[in-house]
Amino acid sequence: MAVATVNLRAVTSWVGIARLFAVVLSCVAFSLVASTGEYKSPYGTWCMFTWCFCFTVTLLVLVLELLELYSALPISWDDFTSAFSMLAALMVFTTSVVYPSTSIGSPCSSHCAQKAVATTASCLCFLAYALEVGLTRAKPGDISSFLSTVPGLLKVFEVYVACLIFSLLDSYASEAGLQWCVAVYSICFIITFLIIIFTIGRCLAYIPCPLEKMLVGYNALALVMYITATVLWPLYSFKDTKRPNPCNSECAWNKHLGVTFLTIFNLIAYLVDLIYSTRMVFIRTPS
What span, in angstroms and rounded, lies between the C-alpha atoms of 245 and 251? Predict the structure, then answer.
C-alpha cells in the first residue's frame, strides 16, 4: 500500500516550475475563452478541450509527484510523463495557431481583449510544455526511458500528425491510390500507437524477439510506405482539379493540401526516427 509523503522538489525543480506555469496558463486560456461564450464551433470546442485536458492531466501529474503516489501505478511513469509533455506541447501549439485564426476576426468584433490574452496565454503554455520536453529529454546514451529519447518523442509526434490527417480526410473512396494512402496512415498510426502504449504499460519486455532491431525494421517499412503516400496523395487528390474560389477552411481542396503537408511532415519524422534508431541499435559509443 502506497504511503503519501510530500516531495517539494515536484514543484520547486525546473520541471515542476514548468508544469506549474503550464497549469496556470492553460487555466487562464480556457477561463477567458469560456467567459466570452464564443467557443461552440468545432474549432472552438477543440481548443477548449485541449486547454482543459492539458490542465487536468498536468495538475494530476503534479499532485501524484508531490505526494509520491505515482510509484503505485502499474506504468512506466517517466515514459508516461515524457509522452504526455510532448503530446501537450503539440496540442497546445496547434491550438495557439487555430484559435486566433478562427475566432479573432479582422477586425475583431467582440471580446477582443479576452481573446488576445487567451491566445498569448496559450502560446506561453506551449513554451512551458516545450521547456518540460527539453528538460526531461534523455541524454545521449541513456535509454532507460524510451519515450524521453528522440525516437520515443518522434513516436508521439507521428501519432499526433496522423490524428490531424484523419481529421482532414473526407473523400478518398473514388481512387485506389487514395485508399492506399489512408491504409498507410492507419497502419502506421496503429502500430506506432501500440508501441507507445506498450512502452508506458511495460509490456515490450514480453515480446519474444530482438525489440530494438524490430523497431528499426518497422521504421524502415513505415518510411517506405510514407514515401508512396507522399507521391500518391497529391497525385490523385489534385489530378484534373483546380482550387475553387472561394475556398474556406471546409473546402475539400484545402483539406487535401493540409493532408499533403502533414504527410510530408510524418515522412520526415519517420526518416529522422529511422536514423536515430539505427544509431542507437547498431552504432555503439565506446565506453
Answer: 10
